[in-house]
Amino acid sequence: MNKLGVAVIGVGFWGRNHARILRELPETNMVAVCDKDSDRVRSIAEQYGIEGYTDSRKLLKQKGVEAVTVCTWSTNLAEEARRALKAAKHVLVEKPMADNSDHARKLVELAKEKRLHLAVGFVERFNPGVQRVKEAIKKREVGSPVSATSRRVSQWPERVGDIGVVKDTAIHDIDAIRYIFEEEPMAVYAKAGNLKHERFEDYAQIMLTFESGKTAFIESNWLTPYKVRTLIVTGSEAIMSLDYITQEITIETLGKILKPMHEWKEPLKLELQNFASSVLKDEEPLVTGFDGLRALEIAEAALKSAASCRAIKL
After folding, report:
1. Which domains occur in the chain, in start order?
2. With bands split at pLDDT 50, 70 and 90, how would you rate the model's confidence at 261?
3. Euclidean distance between the first and final Cα of the chain, in Å?
């Protein structure tokens, strides 16, 4: 089996998980890591017996690197992804893909121009529970879907310091709802603010409306003292609930509660496997650059709505 030569740019909290999985996958050969923190690079490079760099430009010159995953601070994602694409490397860039949609759009255009794969790290799409919810909607197990409600709340994550809760956290659910409904929202209305953090919003409530009549409600914050990650889909025949963390599903109908069983799987492993396979087989990844761009555009519209106290058409 051919293996894809990969490297990880940014090996902080999340990048370390990328490195661990890419080392294990049968589809990949992890050859290098890069981070501005030289001690961190040295530690991981020694752990896996690979090359370590503090400058991604030097890493990208290594012939064995065919693809990279970019896990830097959000405000650096687009620059690192652009640099990798210009060096003819396939790229999986973590969400939110870029600090703004203009930069994200340029990445999509560059990848198309270079005929390279560009994937975006919306890991919840690979959650088996999300896949099960999407399947249930398609098979009309809940009847006609009416609404989706997501709650993604917890205390402020110390890893975040350059964007607010909408682009860091709510954007996961923006993408997941686009994915399960297979429909683009036509308008967004949001409220957001900051209670504990001066620079960025730390709470938001977002409502998305769809031409079909469906509605989505997204609640995100960095204030709640414990972590909650849930998705509820209300239909004409049933209500389906998902715990993103445990991947447990509950289907409630009149007088009956069902809890379908399925195997727990690590979503990040499935995501990275999909990216590697898409490059090796020259197929479109499950989450494309366009998906990343669209989610970011909706997140920006939510912030605009919150700032202006009005609904924003998309």
Report:
1. 4-123+268-287 (3.40.50.720), 124-265+297-313 (3.30.360.10)
2. confident
3. 44
